[in-house]
Amino acid sequence: MTQAIGILYEHPEWFKPLFATLDRRGLPYEPIHAESHRYDPSATSAPYSLVVNRVSASSYLRDHAQAILYARQYLDHLETLGVPLLNGPRAFELDLSKARQLTLMTKLGLPHPRSRVVNSVEQVVAAAAELEYPIIVKPNLGGSGALMRRFDSHDELRAAAEAGDVTPILGIDTTGIVQEFHPTRGSIVRVEALADRYLYAIRIHNGTSENFNLCPADICQTPDGESAGLPEAGANDLDFCPADAPGMRQLQIEATTPPPWVVDGVLAIFRASSVDVGGVEYLESERDGQIYLYDVNTLSNFVTDAPTLVGFDPFERLVDHIERRAGLVAPATA
User: Is residue 232 part of a domain?
Assistant: First the structure.
């Protein structure tokens, strides 16, 4: 009997296209709800041919922080049992830590904004003094661009710290990233890869260079589940998702071709952390004209209406990969 493919996830909407593709292919799968689940740690087997990890670092924004912490244990358990995993523990840990991402980029020689990793408000203030303003402070374990805040001067940061406004930014693991803020040249680029191959890249235009706050706008709903609209001039873009603005999509998002060294760098990041599928964002800085990689996201929802934008359906290719990893396709066919 063919074992089911387990899909470990917690968001009720994001993975409907994946489930629809699995249904269309007639593949056996079982949704595994990471926010409400249990397992026997003494079990010696699991009923899955493959488990696909789709748990988001933004789960805590939907009152599902338990999904993140639980998934760490469950993925480790499955790996111990020898269950094949797509975006397993190493990939998941990279997604959950911007500090790890920055260390890996440094090891691979990839450019990223100058940063400091901190674990207290006092260290935020001290770290910022070592960097050039404006800076951005963001949680190490984040998602959806949540909690990020830009500061244009040391006085502004110190006042926010004294008012208690910086503490929440450190997030659920009480660790933060203090980073030089690079105004973009009106857009950022997200590079997607799958199975150690470049998949596509999209350029997301935000209209201004001052209010993007390094947010890639790579997920298609705000934390409350409502579709994000286009931002007003001067607004904070942390909830802006151009992929969910069909009326403006052609103006806001376009397919693009990254420099070859960026594609090589993205693939190197994913190889180093066993990432099967994910995206990396980069910006072109108005400060110095250089390209900086700044975020790794191993949860890929893919861009809305991908066939129109990039010429193919990435969910079909993802399911091709899932089939191969689950052993449902003969090697010669794969």
Answer: yes
The mean pLDDT of 205-216, rounded to a whole number, is 49
Angstrom distance (rounded) from CA 134 to CA 179: 9
Task: Look up residue 24 and give its amino acid.
Answer: R
Omega cis (within 30) before 134:
yes
Given the DSSP bridges, would you call strands 4-9 and 29-33 parallel, antiparallel or unpaired?
parallel
CA 19/CA 30 separation, integer angstroms: 10
Residue 303 has pLDDT above 80, yes or no: yes
CA 177 to chain centre: 16
- Do 245 and 230 share a structural domain? yes
Tokens matching residue 295: 């975020």
Please indicate, yes or no, whether residues 63 and 167 belong to a single structural domain of this protein: no
Which CATH number characterizes residue 161's domain?
A: 3.30.1490.20
Task: Count CB atoms within 10 A of the CB of residue 171.
Answer: 21
Q: What percent of the chain has pLDDT over 70?
A: 84
Is 332 within a domain? no
Name the residue range of residue 57's domain.
4-87+321-325
Look up the pTM and report it.
0.87
Within a domain: 297: yes
d(C-alpha 150, C-alpha 181), whole Å: 8
Determine, yes or no, domain membership for 270.
yes
